[in-house]
Design brief:
single chain, alpha/beta, five-stranded parallel beta sheet, two-stranded antiparallel ribbon, magnesium chelatase activity, plastid
Length: 317
């Protein structure tokens, strides 16, 4: 789960993460703690869309000063309405003053940042469609009362949920770049350690955070370096062919699986400080890239992640 989140921060084009697991396994805690690791970005001052000053498409803005700010993390509540998510048009202002007045929603706020949906499997289907559509195209369009407004909405979509409360539709699952499965820890010693750490945090949150500060800063620098070097990472043609062979033999629909696996392997190599992808990097990321894209067989008892790993070793050996 942590690796999937880090790889998406390094390369947002991977397409987000879906985290499924038992309740109380720290899914939301992990996602929300990602904020402290995010690098800073340059934005146009006073712009509600966090536009990039270098971006020629930045809403056709006149040149304004740019400021540095931390990447945004926006929480999407389950009860959110479509207007709150997409933004709405101020009809009164449009009629009285004759200007298109747009009230930006959560998608605008999440531009160039992270949008987190807890219990995504309980979210209304049409809202999930809107989110995935914006995440895939990088734009959000609002059509209302004959007025049409588009704005950039490029964000990393992170969803989490408990499989007991219902699965996500397969075509929605397929739109998430990676899928992480989280189980409850069975080792008693490790459980005790988690309980003790939690108690230590409750006693003195400040001291707890400072005890991990050095490790966290090191990881932050590692992420910054990985983002900078990502463009120079190479993947050999024969490795690409093998990735596609694994996807083809597992009957993965479409080509998203191939694309995401290539991107995730490059991001992992970059995180390790390498300039070339190895088979080991692919073995690490391929289960998370493909497990949610396999066709569900009701009679199959084996975990889909294991099926992917078995097929990987068969093709790569």
């Amino acid at each position: 789960m942590k690796l999937c989140l880090l790889l998406n921060v390094i390369d947002p084009k991977i397409g987000g993460v879906m985290i499924m697991g038992d309740r109380g396994t720290g899914k939301s805690t992990t996602v929300r703690s990602l904020v402290d690791l995010l690098p800073e970005i340059q934005v146009v001052a006073g712009d509600p869309y966090n536009s990039d000053p270098q971006d020629p498409e930045a809403m056709g803005m006149e040149v304004r000063e740019s400021i540095t700010k931390e990447i945004n993390m926006v929480d999407l509540p389950l009860g959110a309405t479509e207007d709150r998510v997409c933004g709405t048009i101020d009809i009164e202002k449009a009629l009285t003053e004759g200007v298109k007045a747009f009230e930006p929603g959560l998608l605008a706020k999440a531009n160039r940042g992270i949008l987190y949906v807890d219990e995504v499997n309980l979210l209304d289907d049409h809202l999930v469609d809107v989110l995935l559509d914006s995440a895939a195209s990088g734009w959000n369009t609002v059509e209302r009362e004959g007025i049409s407004i588009s704005h950039p909405a490029r964000f990393i979509l992170i969803g989490s949920g408990n499989p007991e409360e219902g699965e996500l539709r397969p075509q929605l699952l397929d739109r998430f770049g990676m899928h992480a499965q989280v189980g409850t820890v069975r080792d008693a010693e490790l459980r005790v350690k988690i309980v003790e750490e939690r108690a230590r945090f409750d006693r003195n949150p400040k001291e707890f955070r400072s005890s991990y500060m050095a490790e966290q800063e090191k990881l932050q620098q590692q992420i910054g370096a990985a983002r900078a070097c990502l463009g120079s990472v190479q993947i050999d043609h024969d490795l690409k062919v093998k990735i596609s062979k694994v996807c083809a033999e597992l009957n993965v629909d479409g080509l998203r699986g191939d694309i995401v696996t290539n991107r995730a392997a490059k991001a992992l190599a970059s995180l390790k400080g390498k300039d070339k992808v190895s088979a080991e990097d692919i073995a690490t990321v391929i289960p998370n890239c493909l497990r949610h894209r396999l066709r569900k067989d009701p009679l199959e008892s084996i975990d889909s992640g294991l099926l992917v790993i078995e097929k990987f070793y068969e093709v790569f050996s």
